[in-house]
Amino acid sequence: MDIQIGRGKTARRAYGIDEIALVPGGRTLDPKVADTHWEIGGIRREIPIIASAMDGVVDVGMAVKLSELGALGVINLDGIQTRYENPTEILDKIASVGVTDFVALMQELYAAPVQPELIQKRIREIKAQGGIACASSIPVNAFKYGAIAAEAGCDLFFLQSTVVSTTHVAAEGLVSLDLAKFCQDMPIPVIMGNCVTYDVTLELLQAGAAGVLVGIGPGAACTSRGVLGVGIPQATAVADCAAAREDFFKETGKYVPIIADGGLITGGDICKAIACGADAVMIGSPIARAKEAPGRGFHWGMATPSPVLPRGTRIKVGTTGDLQQILCGPAGLDDGTHNLLGALKTSMGTLGAANIREMQAVEVVIAPSLLTEGKVYQKAQQLGMGK
């Protein structure tokens, strides 16, 4: 039901992940038999988690390790890895600068040009070590970098921006990217995002997207909602976009995964995103906390180094364990940020969901007190859910 903001404006109520809860049904099952596999672009993965294409999250080593564990990692073709032959010293500088100086430093560091030979080198390094090579670029560079990445053996290409659409009005002298033509011309599957509405999701699916990323502004290091005032809370956004996937599937017989991107920190967040309709999630800050992550305990958004309007910041996430612990356990923390796969399997067992499709169908309720009810001692002592 629409809510009247004023005489000339009404609004629809939208819900965030923290405002909902999942309801157990009439059966349970052993978490060991819960099937968490999913497919994207013909590639089957056992863990429905993708590590974000952010320089503090994924480098060559992380992409390979994520592949080995059954997940995916995306390397940022517009980032440090493709601008510098040896990114180690650059990442050290970003980690060492003070809070008042990091934006200027990053604007300077990211002003170095992307080197096409480094795009090929990074992709080939991932493939040489047996990893699944996933790469991301903003739309303005997609035609150029996409072809280079595909030639080097890239498996999946992610076309990402704060907001992507099939109808874009370019400035005078610039040519708009034809997304349908881009998908058709690329020899590898193209995943597109980000979006938050039914209509845009359907348009991206019709354009040939092999996956759609959902989420504008919920990420831990993203400031788009504050800078631009744009976004829809993730629970509603995922549900709306998943509805487009279902209608597209009914019409064409082609099932295309929806990926909830951003704002998901704990295992419970991931479970709720899938229950809202996501097939998988893309996360940044939880993976940035791994010992193997390139960010040295820091995490920053893709738009943080923008020379004209930064829409992200650098946050300190710390280092809490290795990637194995964070994804698959055993957990060394009590706050839901370790053993994300175990949390998903246990939740599915509790809810009686045997696979991802059944998890998408579980009952959801509005529960604004879900994370605070009865948690007085945890909050006072900063333990578990009170951290």
UniProtKB/TrEMBL annotation:
It comes from the Bacteria. CDD domains: IMPDH (cd00381). The keyword Signal does not apply. One of its GO terms (molecular function) is IMP dehydrogenase activity. The keyword NAD applies. Residues 16-297 form the IMP dehydrogenase/GMP reductase domain. Transmembrane segments: none annotated. GO terms for biological process: GTP biosynthetic process. InterPro entries: Aldolase_TIM, IMP_DH, IMP_DH-rel2, IMP_DH_GMPRt. Keywords: NAD, Oxidoreductase. Belongs to the IMPDH/GMPR family. PANTHER family: INOSINE-5'-MONOPHOSPHATE DEHYDROGENASE, INOSINE-5-MONOPHOSPHATE DEHYDROGENASE RELATED. This is GuaB3 family IMP dehydrogenase-related protein.
